[in-house]
Predict the structure.
Amino acid sequence: MDVMKGIAGMLESGQDTNGCAPKAVSRRDGLKLGAGAVMALVMSPAVAQQRAGNAAAVEKPLFELLPNWSLASADKPMTVTDLVNLKDAAVRFLKRVENGELPALEAELGEFAIRNYQPGSTFNAGDASGFFLLLRIVFEVPDITGANEAWDFGGWHPAEDILALKEKREADDFHPGWPVYLARISNKLYVRSNAAAKSSGSRSDYRALDEYSYMRSKYRFRTAESISKMEFIFVVGK
């Protein structure tokens, strides 16, 4: 079924606490075992379950976790919290895909996009830029490809990609994964700043749902486990 039709139709119709020993914390993580941490280590399964339930009750909706990347620069870098939230959103997204919840997830995306990503008066560049990042994390998008295979749904691109799009070059001149780059050997995922970004039109022309639908038809999803093992790093530059 076509993704967009599915979303439209839906809109119209409307850890483990089984007594296991606590996991050891490595000093390399930079964590200090203060009073709170000691209490957590001796916490009973019942209390742990209750706390987990309380946390779930106040858990942010997935798409509201996405950071505002549109202004990311040397002067306004993404924070550790931004990167943690971005990673958490990607893992939660993919876990729901793996649990067979994709139709419901796409319905939520459609509703959120209508409120925040639609070109025109309701467009929110900050929210849309976070979704722009998410797509390049949850899908196995290549780092570079020929411009003849390029696509453009508005939004953000490096300046050289805009030129490649206009000239329809055959060479490897298009970077569909930008601004995300995965160093596979070290398993580090770099999120570049927005300093080099240009737009093929107005940034308010970014068609988030169209790009999602296109990527959905072209690329495979990554796994939640693979994302959970990556280290997310913000870098300034192209």
User: Anything to note?
Assistant: Confidence is low (pLDDT under 50) at residues 7-57.
